[in-house]
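Hey team,

Filing this mostly as a record. A colleague (T.K.) asked me to run one chain through the structure pipeline before their review meeting, and I want the input and output archived in the tracker in case anyone asks later how it was produced. No errors, nothing strange. Just documentation.

Input sequence:
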Amino acid sequence: MGEPGQGRALRRDAEENRRRIVAAGREVFAERGLGATLNDVAHHAGLGVGTVYRRFPDKQALAEAVFAEELAEIAAMARAALGAPDAFGALAGFLEEALARAERSRGLRELMRQGGEVGAPLARARAEIAAHCGELVERAREQGALREGVSQADIAPIAAMVDAVMALPGGGGPQGWRRYLVVLVDGLRAGPGRGPLPTAGAPD
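Output structure:
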């Protein structure tokens, strides 16, 4: 049997390798999207691909680890927004911050477009973001700042619309997506002459 100190050193090495792999995966997926391979990540991390496979059995497992971490950070941003006195302004600010994160990560945008089952950490982070956004929407409604008919269910489609602008050649210009985010957010705001929104899914 090995010495106890050797076992601790091996565990430290394994954990350090995992951190290096996740950090490299974050950078590689951000630049190349989910089409990047574990070989790409291993090369970027300066590790052998066998080391990567010992920590993560496939690319999906690594992508889930990378983006669960990133979505948890976005969830923390949404949680922090709950402390602002102006709920509508906090919601708009959170959307801009979250989309700015997405702009810097092709992989994150691709992940957000995907449907289907995801692992528990990703699902938990997504649910936390949705819950915090829902609370901001309800508070903005109570403060009279929200247009009649707007609900928490409108937030994800707005993010998807902005993502579509980011996907345009040139991303709509240096501030293109922010321009359209302002247009969309202003459409949520209560104001004179603004009637209720049509019910989602209602027939023409």
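Quick notes for T.K.: The chain has a mean pLDDT of 88. The chain has nine helices and no strands.
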